[in-house]
Specification:
It is a single chain. The protein has about 450 residues and is α/β, with parallel strands linked by helices. The protein has 19 helices and 15 strands. Strands 8-15-14-11-13-12 form a six-stranded parallel beta sheet, sandwiched between helices. A five-stranded parallel beta sheet has the order 2-3-1-4-5, with helices on both faces. The two termini are about 45 Å apart. The model has no long low-confidence stretch (mean pLDDT about 90).
Length: about 450
């Protein structure tokens, strides 16, 4: 991430155009937040005639189809959600694209998804295909099949996901099959890692920041912040309920993750409450984490810009109020806030704008926040991909202006904060085999 994939992809397309002596019909698939960024990069890295041939497919399905059918453009840029639109998919297929470029291809890694099937309906007929991602393998080698199916039409790992899984993996939990607590855990068969790696590397090029960028050091710090009295009480109650469910064998992974999410929310200072079929956030009176964030912003913002990453909607309002209290100007990139590109440019170009309040999913891809030399993780989810992408927003080409980049995690000791951080440090998604983790942590802790 942050090593110039977009620029490289545009150069690759231009090379194909030069050989063909014309701009070939090209489809670029990229997350919604980065569509405008692709136009900017094409304008920056290609001749005017190439830029003039590029258009974004956006709006309703009807509007996108009209653009596709009547535009004189040759390069069409579209977000992954477009492949949920059956009528548009059919029109894309008729366009007979010769080049298909998939940005952040890991978003298509689910072999069962309809979206992947519709994408293959387009890519299988394209002579030239390129896939890009900064997070190729998040959970396990199982992630590879869908991505390589797009890339080489099954030449490396076959056309059937289940055949691929049977050949290369085993179920580590097979002894529990048929029992109430059973859930499959597919792990590579012994000794196959090397062989899989060789197959992957035949059609892949991996570059790290250390290889192609002269970046400042990335410093990662964890600041432990104790819970307030109300926080501790609410957290322990939720923890006790979860332990009881796991121990009784009535908690499935999905329900466990919901409870885990609620516990992580409590750690940031609020409780999710449901009343009259409506959900709202009840802010707890004492919130040491928010107080520590206030102290950090007071220390950092006079001389540096900072990103405050948070995963929960209720956090945005709290941090917004905190910035207002400190008289610090801020920008926002998250689900509640549109115009992400405008907010990005304001943070990057306005010296008075000192804080970016951002959600890793909304601001974790195709966003440059290199004016920030600090990033504070006020709250976090358990997605490794979101974490890695968010870290790369301020540690990438353009951050050479800073002596160092500092990432600060605010965490409550002896809580799920530490479990999630440990999983991310091991480059794992905490959500993988969540029941096993909970049984290991909570049941053993209770027995002690």
């Amino acid at each position: 991430m942050g090593t110039g994939k977009t620029t490289t992809a545009i150069a690759w397309c231009r090379a194909k155009y030069n050989v063909a002596k014309s701009i070939l019909p090209t489809l670029i698939v990229s997350p919604k937040v980065s569509l405008e960024n692709w136009l900017d990069e094409i304008k920056r890295n290609a001749p005017a005639k190439v830029f003039d041939s590029a258009v974004i497919l956006k709006g309703s399905e009807k509007k996108r189809i009209e653009i596709l059918r009547f535009s004189e453009a040759k390069i069409f840029i579209v977000n992954p959600e477009a492949f949920d639109m059956e009528g548009l998919v059919e029109q894309l297929h008729k366009k007979a694209f010769q080049i298909v470029l998939i940005d952040e291809v890991h978003r298509f890694k689910n072999p069962k998804s309809k979206r992947l099937g519709n994408l293959l309906y387009i890519t299988d007929f394209a002579a030239n295909r390129m896939i890009m991602t900064g997070t190729l393998i998040l959970n396990s080698y199982l992630d590879i099949w869908a991505q390589w199916r797009i890339l080489d039409k099954g030449a490396t790992f076959g056309l059937n996901f289940y055949t691929f899984r049977e050949q290369w993996f085993r179920d580590a939990n097979v002894a529990w099959k048929g029992k109430p607590k059973y859930f499959p855990n597919y792990v590579p068969k012994p000794g196959i890692d090397g062989e899989l790696s060789v197959k992957i590397e035949r059609k892949a090029s991996r570059k790290t920041k250390a290889e192609c960028l002269d970046l400042p050091p990335l410093i990662k710090l964890i600041e432990h912040v104790e819970l307030g009295a109300d926080q501790a009480k609410a957290y322990k109650q939720m923890e006790a309920d979860l332990i009881a469910e796991v121990k009784a064998g009535v908690c499935v992974a999905t329900n466990a993750l919901v409870r885990v999410l609620r516990m992580l929310q409590i750690l940031t200072g609020y409780v999710q409450v449901e009343r009259d079929n409506e959900k709202f956030a009840h802010q707890l009176k004492e919130n040491p984490r928010l107080q520590r964030l206030k102290e950090l912003l007071e220390e950092i913002t006079p001389a540096h810009k900072v990103i405050v990453w948070c995963n929960f909607q209720a956090n945005y309002a709290s941090i917004r109020d905190l910035c207002d209290e400190l008289n610090v100007e801020y920008a926002e990139i998250h689900g509640e806030k549109g115009e992400h590109r405008k907010e990005e440019m304001r943070f990057q170009n306005d010296p008075k704008c000192r804080v970016m309040i951002a959600n890793p999913q909304a601001g974790g891809v195709a966003i440059n926040l290199t004016e920030a030399s600090y990033a504070i993780y006020y709250s976090r989810g358990y997605s490794l991909g979101d974490r890695l992408q968010s870290e790369a927003r301020c540690h990438r080409g353009g951050s050479e202006k800073h002596q160092k980049i500092t990432l600060i995690d605010l965490a409550a000791p002896g809580t799920l904060d530490e479990d999630v951080l440990a999983a991310l440090l091991r480059k794992e998604n905490f959500s993988d085999n969540v029941l096993s983790r909970l049984q290991e942590r909570y049941i053993s802790k209770q027995n002690v």
